[in-house]
Amino acid sequence: HPQKNKRLFWFNDVSDDRLQQLYSHSACLLATSYAEGFGLPLIEAQAYQLPVLARNIEAFREVLGENAMYFDADNALDLAASLMQWLALFNQNNHIVPPQENLFSWDRSVHALLNQICYHDWTNPTQVA
Q: What is the dihedral of CA 59, 25, 22, 52, to 10 degrees?
């Protein structure tokens, strides 16, 4: 691609420090997966209040809900149109920015786990955790 290593980059085996630097110096996370198990990059982006443009799949919506812009694109032209739409909103400062409060954190995850362990009715097999 003509923009390779200019405005389009691919990184392999990125260290945590380098990944932090990339997130903090980016304008947007583009998540194009068709199938995703959890969406960890979306959560990491949210920790940096990095806007997200993500494919409209259930896993991504479950992670960020309305805190991201979603696209439905099956080809390069449709994806380009979604990117142009996001850029227009970004240039008008009218794009979606994740909230300051991180929806997922180690602290919240531990709290949720402890709530399940401590307050789950283990004597009732029909109770859903």
A: 10
